[in-house]
């Protein structure tokens, strides 16, 4: 039992070590993709925008200072009548009689324009919020929105890593397919040469020659199709990592290592759940922001400047004006009450979405793990079939050369051998594709 367990551990470590070696170039391409992918750049632009919005919200706590100046020229309009003459002239006349002099002249009634004429006012105007809960909660919301943008970036990055891996495996799959068809083409061309020689020597009939010619044509067509699949795979891979579409792709030495299925469930750490948690917190602050309607707002202001007529500037022209303003909403027709009810319904919706997404992520993990197990079983079966088909083809080829087997038997053995190689190649990289999907479902890829 101990020896068996030791072999299993050794094999697992070997697979991990081999995996770390064979995937080095893929890891490099992943880093290139994460740095140069255009969608990631767009997400970074959104994050930068959110950061600036946060700074804007923070700036609302600071005072606002502005320079205000105005000049007025007026004539006509409403006036203020001041009956100075009517009030003082009788008194002045009496005083002149008593003093027997003209020391007290007569005064005219005055009429002053309400609109100031030839008047200027220049001041530094400063305002600052002293108590405003709307600003406080607005800043919190902006901060959480920035975090939300970062989480959305991480979600896309994980999806991109999965797509890059799948595209890379499909590219390797297509290369191996081309190699298999090239070997098959050599094989059928050799059969064509042998059959033509045997036909010339009257050893076989013309049917075998025609059949071998058709096999050459069929394999050549399949080879061309495989090349087109390879070209498409290369183009798509280069698109994902934002390189020129015809750029050559470096690959590691081909091997038949398979991924491990020893993966612990980790869906509780998925960014999708973190995103919903962040959305819930934002909604909570939106609720508090709505409730802040009932709180008083306190602000201060101060003006420092000059004002006078005829552009006079002196000590009397200087002035300051300062104060505190209070705003407290008393009634708004229950507008905010209903708005708060909407926020509460959003909270219930987010809670329901979180439960649903949690179940979906767990389902995705279990399905991906089962798909990986199935892919590995299929690979092992195809691998065994490949070994059997190889031996069978070698035996029939030997018998055919000795004249103990007909061409149909040889053709069948060769087709089995080619198909077994193709199926093994497909199932091998399908297992790696399934592993990439499981890694995505479990959020186990580590970003550098």
UniProtKB/TrEMBL annotation:
Keyword NAD assigned: no
Coiled-coil region(s): 340-389
InterPro entries hit by this protein: OMP_efflux (IPR003423), TolC-like (IPR051906)
One Pfam family of this chain: OEP
UniProt keyword annotations, A-Z: Cell outer membrane, Coiled coil, Membrane, Transmembrane, Transmembrane beta strand, Transport
Keyword presence, Coiled coil: yes
Subcellular localization(s) per the UniProt record: Cell outer membrane
PANTHER family in UniProt: OUTER MEMBRANE PROTEIN TOLC (PTHR30026:SF20)
Family that this chain belongs to: Belongs to the outer membrane factor (OMF) (TC 1.B.17) family.
Protein name: Outer membrane protein TolC
Organism name: Flavobacterium pectinovorum
């Amino acid at each position: 039992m101990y020896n068996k367990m030791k072999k299993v551990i050794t094999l697992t470590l070997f697979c991990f070590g081999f995996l770390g070696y064979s995937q080095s170039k893929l890891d490099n391409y992943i880093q290139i993709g994460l740095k140069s992918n255009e969608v990631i750049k767009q997400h970074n632009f959104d994050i930068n925008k959110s950061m600036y919005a946060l700074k804007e919200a923070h700036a609302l706590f600071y005072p606002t200072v502005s320079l205000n100046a105005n000049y007025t020229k007026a004539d006509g309009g409403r006036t203020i009548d001041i009956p100075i003459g009517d009030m003082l002239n009788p008194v002045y006349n009496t005083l002149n009689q008593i003093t027997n002099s003209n020391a007290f002249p007569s005064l005219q009634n005055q009429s002053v324009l309400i609109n100031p004429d030839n008047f200027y006012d220049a001041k530094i105007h400063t305002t600052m919020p002293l108590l405003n809960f709307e600003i406080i909660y607005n800043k919190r919301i902006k901060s959480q929105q920035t975090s939300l943008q970062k989480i959305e970036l991480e979600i896309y990055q994980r999806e991109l890593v999965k797509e890059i891996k799948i595209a890379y495996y499909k590219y390797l799959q297509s290369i191996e397919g081309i190699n298999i068809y090239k070997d098959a083409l050599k094989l059928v061309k050799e059969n064509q040469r042998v059959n033509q020689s045997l036909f010339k020597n009257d050893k076989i009939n013309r049917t075998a020659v025609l059949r071998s010619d058709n096999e050459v044509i069929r394999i050549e067509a399949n080879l061309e199709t495989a090349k087109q699949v390879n070209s498409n795979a290369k183009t798509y891979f280069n698109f994902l990592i934002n390189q020129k579409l015809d750029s050559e792709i470096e690959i590691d030495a081909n091997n038949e290592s398979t991924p491990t299925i020893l993966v612990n469930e980790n869906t509780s750490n998925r960014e999708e759940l973190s995103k919903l948690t962040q959305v819930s917190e934002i909604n909570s602050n939106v609720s508090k922001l709505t409730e802040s309607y009932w709180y008083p707002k306190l602000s201060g202001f101060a003006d420092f400047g000059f004002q006078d007529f005829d552009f006079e500037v002196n000590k009397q022209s200087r002035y300051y004006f300062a104060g505190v303003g209070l705003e407290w909403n008393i009634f708004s027709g229950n507008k905010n009450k209903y708005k708060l009810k909407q926020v509460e319904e959003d909270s219930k919706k987010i809670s329901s979405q979180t439960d649903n997404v949690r179940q979906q992520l767990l389902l995705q993990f279990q399905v991906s793990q089962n798909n990986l197990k199935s892919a590995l079983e299929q690979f092992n079966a195809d691998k065994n079939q490949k070994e059997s088909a190889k031996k069978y083809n070698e035996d029939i080829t030997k018998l055919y050369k000795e004249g103990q087997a007909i061409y149909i038997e040889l053709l069948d053995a060769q087709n089995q051998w080619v198909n077994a190689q193709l199926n093994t190649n497909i199932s091998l990289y399908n297992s790696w594709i399934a592993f990439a999907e499981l890694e995505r479902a479990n959020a186990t890829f580590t970003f550098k």
